[in-house]
Structures are given as structure tokens and as C-alpha cells.
TrEMBL record:
The keyword Repeat applies. This is Peptidase. Residues 2-185 form the Clp R domain. Keywords: Repeat. It comes from Streptomyces dengpaensis. Pfam families: Clp_N (PF02861). The keyword Repeat applies. InterPro entries: Clp_N_dom_sf (IPR036628), Clp_R_N (IPR004176).
Amino acid sequence: MFERFTKDARAVVEGAVLQSERAGADTVEAEHMLFALLDREGSRGSFALASLGLAGRRDSVERGLAEARRRGGLSRADADALSGLGIDVSEIVSRVEEAHGVGALESGRKGGGGRWLRRRPFAQGAKDVLTRSLRIALARRERHIGDEHLLMALTVMPGVLAEVLADHGVTYESVARVLYGDGGGVAAAG
């Protein structure tokens, strides 16, 4: 599949590996791909992010992701669904943090860090982003996968990353509108 990636898309994947190394993570996660995209300049993906007002707002994205990690990786939609069942996630987080310290529910456990691994494996979420980016490119009848397709894939993946991006006005539809002048249709991304 990587032979279909543009130079910019390859740079994002390589940047995600570096982001993972810097974070001391054992695997490359989807969020590392997002951070690599946020660090890019002069590409279609970076143009879309700048046009949608997300360029230079990495701190805000990091805060949104940190808050979700504090909830054990649950999105607000998950927390709302549990609330409907009478389960108060905020209360559970407070009690766990009282007993075990702030951040006890964080799911992003760091490994040994450094460069001890020759190749960092990609976690399932990151692999899913790569697969979804291929589907998006094919649905748009595009021959190559660019960093814009990686960005679009991040916006449609279920979970916290898409929620944080949407909180910042970055959705599949908004990216498609900026890049293609249309709404793009999420159905095309599935």
C-alpha cells in the first residue's frame, strides 16, 4: 500500500514514528499521526488544517486528548451513554484519582522509550487510519494517498481523535469542503 503514498503522506507516517519515539510509546498510535500532520507545512493536509483554524493550536488538541485519557480513553459520547445508564464517569474518575492519583485511568502507558526497538509497530488504530485513507482515496477516484486522506481518515474514525478534531471544527465534511469544494459525504469514506 505504501507505494501509493505521496511524499507528504510518507512524511506523516515517518513523523508519526518520531512522535511515538518522543512520547516514549511502545507503538505508533493514531494520535501520533495527528501530531505529525499538525507539524507539517506546505502540504494539502496542512493547508486544510490551516484553513480550518487548527494550525498552531496543537496545545489545544493535546489538552482535549489528555482529558479523554483522564477518562480512561472514553469519548464524551461514551460518557454520555454511560450516564444514560446511571453511571457517572466523572464521579468514577474522581474516586479512582483520589485513591490512586491523578491520571490513574490514562490508557496511554509509556514504555521504556528510546530507540531500543528497531521498528515500532503500528497499533490497530493507526493501521485502521492507513486502511481508511486508502478507502477514502479510492472513493474519491484518486490514484495516490496523500496526507489529506490521512487527515480525512482521522476525522471519521470512531472515538476520541475524531471528537477532538470536531471540537476544533475539523470534520470530514469541512476538510472535503476546503480541499474539494464539496461536502464529500461520509458515506464515501466508509
